[in-house]
Amino acid sequence: MSGDRTGGRRRSPADGAQRRSDPDEDRAQTVLDFVVGMSVFLAVVAFTFAFVPSLLEPYTAGEGATVIVAERGAAQLAESSLASAESSAVLSPACTLAFFDGTSPERAESEWECGWEANADALHTELGIAKFRGANVTITQNGTVGTIGPADVPMRAGDELPRSRSVAAASRIVDIGGEPYRLTLRVW
């Protein structure tokens, strides 16, 4: 019994109870420990999912840039590309028809002195909009898409409008052949 740490006496159940309540001894995980640990873990995971996208946001184009692109494009169409020699916001009926019906820029320049470099089929090229952006131009009268020319060419071009993305729109009131229209450029 020389190796016995109890000093040769037997332990009583009271000694065991004393021993279990000793705070310096190892103990198993309690429910409270588990709840606190899981709460901290879930809070860190939630914070990570909420915060990391905002870290990457400065590297993506913001909504402000989209609004600027839409305003610049609408101004270019109304004041330069489709404008007649008379004044800005008065669109040339011949140039507008040629733009929307797919006439080549070279023919439009030689026959009607149109100032655009690409027709409605290449709207991104004409407006200098990056290919990753969507763009749509529509000229309406009283809320409906306008038509022009003897073939009633609809004055609409570009991509289909998305249903799930934010779209920036810029409008100009224009005159085509003495009639008021609304030119609207949407960019997303």
Automatic annotation (TrEMBL):
Keywords: Membrane, Transmembrane, Transmembrane helix. Residues 17-26 have a biased composition (Basic and acidic residues). The chain crosses the membrane at residues 30-52. It comes from the Archaea. Residues 1-26 are annotated as: Disordered. This is Uncharacterized protein. It comes from Halorubrum aidingense JCM 13560.
